[in-house]
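Lab notebook, bench 4. We co-purified these components, and the gel suggests they stay together. Before we commit to crystallization screens, I want a quick structural picture of the whole thing.
Request: model the full complex, all chains together.
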Amino acid sequence: MIKHILLVAAREYRQIASTRSFWLTLLIIPLALAAGPVLSRFADKAHTETIMLVDQSGGGVGSAIAHRIELDRQRQVMDALSHYVDRHDLRRAAPDAAWTRKGRWYSDADVAAFIASGGQKAAVARIAAVSQGDADAFEAPNQDYRIVETPAAITAAPPGAIDGLLAPWLRPADKSGHKPIDYVVLIPHDFGTSPVVRLWANGVPRASFVSTLQGVLTSQLRTRYLLANGVAGPTAAAAASLAPAIGVTTPPEGSGRERVVIRSILPLISAYILLMSLILSGSWMLQGAIEERNNKLIETVLACITPNELMYGKLVGTVAVGLSMIATWVICGLFAAFATHGAIADLIRPALEPVSTPGSIAAILFFFVAGYLMVSMIFLVIGATSDSMREAQGFLTPVLLVIMLPVTLLVQAVLRDSGGPIVEFLTWFPLYTPFAVLARLGTGIPTWEMLGSAATLLIFILIEVVALGRIFRASLLSGGGRPSLAELARLVRRPG
Amino acid sequence: MEALRLTGVVKRFGDFTAVDDLSFAVAPGEVFGFLGGNGAGKTTSLRMVLDILRPDAGTIMVMGRPPGRSASPDLGFLPEERGLYRSMTAIDTIVYFGRLKGMAAASARREGMALLERFGLAGFARTSVEKLSKGMAQKVQLATAIVNTPKLLLLDEPFSGLDPVNQALLEEVILNAARNGAAVVFSTHVMQHAERLCDRLLFLAHGRKQFEGTQDEARAALPVQLTLTANRSPAALAGVAEAHEAGTGEDGWHDWDVRLEPGGDPGRLLELCTANGFPLRRFEQRRASMHDVFLHIVGGAEARS
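Here is the predicted assembly.
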């Protein structure tokens, strides 16, 4: 019996592996992994927006805006440096420096100290001194904004002429080769007595940019107001820059919401991959089953092996196809992670924690195989009762909807770290058990719940194999189109 | 040991009895024709022999054992509705079915290549089935049936859909298998093939056996038919059941189609004519075709139902 099952499984495997769609599917994820960083690099580069500051009020306001933008930019650099030294375990480069402490909020004072101590250049030099060449070069994140020089004619232009002078900068002629300026900020000469400031934007302005601008201008207005009302200059400046010192407390690194997200990444990916791969390999098996019916092969096959051997062989073949796909994707993912030392590796290391214990690995393997058996059996019966793919769609579409929709809800619920009745229901309802348990491995699922749902799932698969096996056997040699639901129910009740 | 024996086999589908009290046996080296019209129960009987269906009553013995997949190494089967895995190559298809019948991969490949050579398809061994012509694919399917050199070869309507060249090839395969000691059972409703190939026949109608025996025994079941040329009607002669004028000759001589009474002996009629001075210019016994025999035996059963 085992020999026959393995022969059928091997044939199924070879048939599926000989299709172009199998190889395309197999390569899609590695290609996406490879293409992702490249595309994101292009996307990031296109992100820097240009700003022209036209300060007719004397220059102080424009400088304040430029200073604010530079401070925010340096804060980004510090944040990126902190992730870099953490990833490469290089905190020793400057143990006391703020930029080696990942996950904290950098105050303006921190940023100013960073700039004063030499900024990115000095930090990179200190890293290089201790890295001994085993770390790849640090790359600062792309800057959000770049300030362009303002032509003197525009700064000196009267209010009525400024729109005309800015036009070639905001909407340059196609032949000029210049890119349009994204923002032009005009601070009029009467700024202070009047609060009006003009902003030209080449599209809807970013909320963060408007917010930054508003913060600086508010501070400037307050200073001028206080000066106009007799407050001494230093006092006025200090009053305008008064801000609450918010002591930001974040959870220890790798805990809190970040912990939930990071720990859930691989379990959620597992659940998603299980869903996608079994739908794909199930569809291929379904096509094979329909081909056997269409090509009148069944009688020849059944002369050599039993219907059960045929059924188990097909299931084993499909599970093997699915596991091969998953193994390939996992190997590609690990290779990409450890070869690049990039963001993927950064994410994967802490994410591996919940899925790297022997118990977790056993659970993943069990629920993968069980999920495959459970859903493949449904696909197999659909194939055995259909004479064409068109006929199969009648059953397939509702089955796919029933499987896929709750799984989407599950992913969202797990990411919100909410247990709740939906997640509990999906854990214990056998059709969703493999997806729910895999998805919950990151947030933690009690052992008793995992074992209980595994036992329930096993019982369900046994009942499914017996009940749907009857339909499979009865359908093999029957003709005359798709059976009705009543007919299927009768077949389930009556042993073949 | 008999290659196949069915005893009192009954198969019902709901209220419909597809096979009713069927008994027969086939010996090694024998070509056994399983003849019946559409819906006579031929395919159902063969499916029971293959253990694809289980009988409701009676027993079946295949190579001395109850039917089951353990017998598949000794069995070859060509179904009426034929098909192959379209994406598999010819040789891989043959090897696959050979292995399902218990052969080692190497010997299945060796035998498969020999069969493809014999069928003139050696150059297409690595061609996928979907690229073969219909006739080529039928030869590949035949090869899957005989790759294991079966001791019992079951062929369900094997000649349907074959061109004359492939029909001749199949006849050669059947006779060759029988010469090598295999029992060959084939179902058909085309009597010419049965007439050319079968050592023994079984006529089936509505699931019931109507006749089993050799071709001579089958013909003996039919009243003897003669063609006489006489100058008067032979209808009055003793033993003659019917006599019809079939043509007019010269000088009052006529041709007569004569059918004797059941069990009538043509020699006895000739003797009678001589003794009574009944003049004859021609006395010819017509050999009944299997088509006539089948219609005579099965047609009555069909009419009765």
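Residues 311 and 401 of chain A are 25 Å apart (CA to CA). Worth comparing against the SEC data before the next meeting. Chain A has 19 helices and four strands.
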